[in-house]
Amino acid sequence: MESIKELNVYPEKGHSIMFVFRRKPGMSLEEFRYHYEFTHGALATKLPGLISYRQHPTRKPGKGDGAYVPDEAPYDAVSLYIFENAAVAEAAWVSPQGLLVDEDTLKFIDTETMISLPVIPRQVL
């Protein structure tokens, strides 16, 4: 049997942070998703030292989602950023590109309800 380490498709090394967030009040879900994918995604992928960036927009919960899922998703998306290391991540966030990402974040994300989680990505299957 393969070990979890052998199945891991995420980078073994790096500095990872996940953001869980909602759209700004008054913004439609369609506007949010478009901005997230095409505007914010284009800016985020240019962060220096970024080795992986994944966007996970939520969908309407439904059949097959299990017993612990509410009728409506409480958040609109999750992003996972993986940098080469912590020093590179810190430099990226304060770089000119990082400042553009921050500026754009304020245009479509409700930062008052955003959750930031330092994580260790691990693919189990």
TrEMBL record:
Molecular function in Gene Ontology: oxidoreductase activity
Pfam families xrefs: EthD
TM ranges: none
Record-annotated EthD domain positions: 24-111
Superkingdom per UniProt: Bacteria
Stated name of the protein: EthD domain-containing protein
Organism: Paenibacillus polymyxa
Upper taxonomic lineage: Bacteria, Bacillati, Bacillota, Bacilli, Bacillales
